[in-house]
Amino acid sequence: MRALGRYLSLAAAVRRGSTTDGLPYKLTLILSSRCPTRCTFCSIWQNPQEGELSPEEWGRFFASARHAVWTNLSGGEIFQRTDLPAILDELGKGLPRLALVTFPTTGYFPDRLIDGCERLVRAGVPRVLVTISLDGPPPTHDRLRGREGAHARACEAMRAIRAARIPRVEAYFGMTLLPGNRGEADATVEAAAEAVPGITARDFHFNLGMESGHYYRNLGSGVRAPAEALAAVERYRRRGFGPVSFLERAYQRRVGRYLATGRSPVPCSALRASVFVDSRGVVYPCSIYDRPLGSLRENGYDLGRVVRGAEARAARAEVVADRCPGCWTPCDAYPSLLTAFASRPEK
Known about the structure:
Helix 7 links the parallel strand 5 and strand 6. Helix 2 packs parallel to helix 3 and helix 3 runs parallel beside helix 4. By secondary structure, the chain is of the alpha/beta class. It contains 13 helices and 9 strands. A 9-stranded mixed sheet has the order 6-5-4-3-2-1-7-8-9, with helices on both faces.
């Protein structure tokens, strides 16, 4: 019954987000810029690493965001933080309506991965979705990630999380489509199936490489996948009936429109349904729009004070007018899709 209540809170939050500009119900939280890989398409690991919010500071923030029902925890690599268990405990205590937690990982710390998932489940989170990055067969993935053995580590983590059989936890491989792995979707799935028994194409999520100044630090790097990359993953489009499959299909059906126009195919819900907070507590509209809205530390760790401020209102007006940089990253596309579906029937 507790899980049902949280799912109802999620549904109510999505509906509220489609009709009002209240506090965002989805939080993308960057817990650390530290990362064991040195990706050729991303320079997050070069972001300032000093001044990360402490577990206590995250706890104060969570107390101001008790309305949130969905959090995406990201980095860098969140499991580089040895105090991550304390942060997850604060998350569980501070967000009583939390229905969904998602996070990506390089797979370098399988024991910490399992512990983190178990903590979230013990805290009552009804659903935890883990995405283990896998951007090609072994040579390609290791090259793109800048670390020999990165592919083996990712597959080891997948074997470990599947063997753990933690209730309410689902793990997927996430392949970012890039110029450097064009045409390698089939080889990526085949190599993963050889390394992890039982893996199929249904265990993969596909998304696009994006550019960001304040987060990825890769402006001008040309990471956007070519249009032909879409054809390579077309046959992997999800056919199931669950919410994950539904969103995946909706996302993938619109990728072509984004690549043709560079604009979100549906109205963006940044600062309405979702918001982005970096590891030092600076709030942004999203992972792409390099427009700092305010510091949590300078606003008593109160999210409401920041997103209701003049700078955030001005940024939201720019988003509504479609004058933001434009993107189609799942972090922001999924809540935008949910908001669009709640606002009107899909055409």
